[in-house]
């Protein structure tokens, strides 16, 4: 059946999370006199953050523990002395400042302009509700999307099938007419496939994948599938 609805992940797929996150840390570290180089901090933080997000996706930790723990563990790994109060301050400021930086991946506007006349476009994101809409608006891509589904609004996270079903329900779509596009192998690709939707893996790190899998190394390659 012909595809009518295209569901995108946001962070790491369209919105350049790593660039925007680095700039956010630069700003809040300077403001709070955190005497550590951001690139050194990020060398540890990125992997720790991914671990916490996996725990969060599987409902093993709360949003609050994720936001605190990823910072606490990184500072501990660096043996950097910092108070709990300052960690909480940095955690809060990080969420506040993050949407003020709005770099998107190369090809984002071109591919959305290409897809918008042909499909209904939507977002399914595990990101925090209080900042996702700001990211869409600030990066000037909100206008391309009809529905924005956040995990917090559904109270389940990708890859839980309930969030995909909710996305179909509110967009008036069905599985056979829908496709999911995202960078997370587990949350986006496997989550959608297990639910019964088609999926395209945004393989921006050029990981080895089977030729039978629909994957792209940049956004403009989506044109070969859509």
TrEMBL record:
Protein name: Noncanonical pyrimidine nucleotidase, YjjG family
PANTHER family registered for this protein in UniProt: PTHR47478, PYRIMIDINE 5'-NUCLEOTIDASE YJJG
Species, as recorded: Urechidicola croceus
One Pfam family matching this protein: HAD_2
Molecular function GO terms recorded: 5'-nucleotidase activity
């Amino acid at each position: 059946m012909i595809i009518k609805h295209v569901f995108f992940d946001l962070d790491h797929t369209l919105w350049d999370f790593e660039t925007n996150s680095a700039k956010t840390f630069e700003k809040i570290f300077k403001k709070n006199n955190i005497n550590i180089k951001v690139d050194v901090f990020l060398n540890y933080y990125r992997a720790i953050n991914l671990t916490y997000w996996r725990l969060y996706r599987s409902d093993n930790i709360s949003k609050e523990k994720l936001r605190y723990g990823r910072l606490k563990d990184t500072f501990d790994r660096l043996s950097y002395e910092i108070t709990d109060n300052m960690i909480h301050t940095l955690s809060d400021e990080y969420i506040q400042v993050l949407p003020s930086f709005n770099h998107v991946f190369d090809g984002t506007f071109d591919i959305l302009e290409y897809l918008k006349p042909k499909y209904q476009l939507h977002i399914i994101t595990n990101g925090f509700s209080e900042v996702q809409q700001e990211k869409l608006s600030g990066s000037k891509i909100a206008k391309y999307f009809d529905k924005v589904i956040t995990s917090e609004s559904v109270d389940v996270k990708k890859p839980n099938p309930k969030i995909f079903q909710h996305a179909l329900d509110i967009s008036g779509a069905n599985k056979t007419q829908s496709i999911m596009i995202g960078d997370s192998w587990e949350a986006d690709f496997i989550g959608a496939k297990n639910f019964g939707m088609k999926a395209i893996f945004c393989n921006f790190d050029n990981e080895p994948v089977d030729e039978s899998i629909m994957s792209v190394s940049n956004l403009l390659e989506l044109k070969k599938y859509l």
